[in-house]
């Protein structure tokens, strides 16, 4: 576990890192100060699982990731932003190559406050699938698009985005997203809206839409525009 409370770190900060083995259960907590980038746990060749990054304050100039793997799976990693300012949030990232297809599964980003300048990605895979990942936003602001799951070449299914509270959203809400290829980016993706008066740039690639009506919502009121 690495905790940053003040000062400035000009290099990326890792809770744990492994070249040839799994990277499991590591964490980085930022309470103040600044860092270039933050990664809860990173593995070069095996899986990164159950790692976490928590931002309570301070500044992260680049991205924040829960767990990342170059050639393995990213499973059950988390990013939580309660305050501060970061560039982007990506809970789990799996790389891979033409012969190794790592998957991103069951990762979660929670935004309770703070500022995210660019995008939020629940789980991301370069060559494999992004499945069962989630983004939960109840406060703060997000300047870019929000992806429940993102696959560069494969499918992104069974992911969810949940909006409550009074966050500021400036991008598109995606259940699943692919950069290329013919993968499924619709099946099982779910949008949950638990607040009213929200607006977003767009909504795409959700099979299910759940609207939980607040008791204060008047007739003719708008939950999401």
What labels describe this entry?
225 residues, mainly beta, 13-stranded parallel β-sheet, nine-stranded parallel β-sheet
Overview of this structure, please?
- The chain is an all-beta fold and 225 residues long.
- The chain is 0% helix and 50% strand.
- The protein has strands at 2-4, 8-9, 13-18, 23-24, 27-30, 34-35, 38-43, 48-49, 52-55, 59-69, 74-75, 78-81, 85-94, 104-105, 108-111, 115-116, 120-125, 130-131, 134-137, 141-142, 146-151, 156-157, 160-163, 168-169, 172-178, 190-193, 202-204, 208-211.
- Strands 2, 3, 6, 7, 10, 13, 16, 17, 20, 21, 24, 25 and 27 form a 13-stranded parallel sheet that branches.
- It is globular, with a radius of gyration of 17 Å.
- The termini are far apart.
Overall 3D shape = globular
Structural class: mainly beta
The low-pLDDT segments are: none
* Proportion of strand residues: over 45%
Give the helix/strand layout.
Blueprint: E1 2-4, E2 8-9, E3 13-18, E4 23-24, E5 27-30, E6 34-35, E7 38-43, E8 48-49, E9 52-55, E10 59-69, E11 74-75, E12 78-81, E13 85-94, E14 104-105, E15 108-111, E16 115-116, E17 120-125, E18 130-131, E19 134-137, E20 141-142, E21 146-151, E22 156-157, E23 160-163, E24 168-169, E25 172-178, E26 190-193, E27 202-204, E28 208-211
């Amino acid at each position: 576990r690495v905790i940053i409370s003040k000062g400035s770190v000009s290099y990326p900060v890792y809770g744990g890192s492994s070249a040839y083995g799994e990277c499991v259960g590591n964490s980085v907590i930022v309470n103040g100060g600044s860092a270039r980038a933050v990664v809860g746990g990173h593995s070069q060749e095996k899986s990164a699982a159950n790692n976490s990054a928590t931002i309570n304050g301070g500044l992260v100039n680049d991205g924040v990731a829960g767990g990342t793997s170059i050639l393995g799976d990213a499973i059950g990693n988390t990013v939580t932003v309660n305050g501060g300012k970061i560039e982007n949030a990506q809970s789990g990232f799996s790389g891979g190559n033409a012969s190794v297809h790592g998957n991103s599964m069951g990762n979660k980003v929670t935004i309770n406050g703070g500022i995210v300048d660019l995008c939020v990605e629940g789980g991301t895979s370069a060559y494999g699938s992004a499945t069962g990942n989630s983004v939960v936003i109840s406060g703060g602001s997000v300047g870019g698009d929000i992806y429940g799951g993102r696959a560069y070449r494969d499918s992104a299914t069974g992911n969810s985005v949940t909006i409550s509270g009074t966050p500021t959203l400036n991008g598109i809400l995606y259940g699943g997203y692919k950069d290329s290829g013919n993968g499924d980016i619709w099946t099982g993706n779910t949008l949950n809206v638990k607040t009213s008066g929200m607006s977003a740039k767009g909504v795409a690639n959700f099979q299910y839409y759940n609207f939980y009506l607040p008791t204060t919502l008047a007739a003719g009121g708008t939950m999401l525009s």
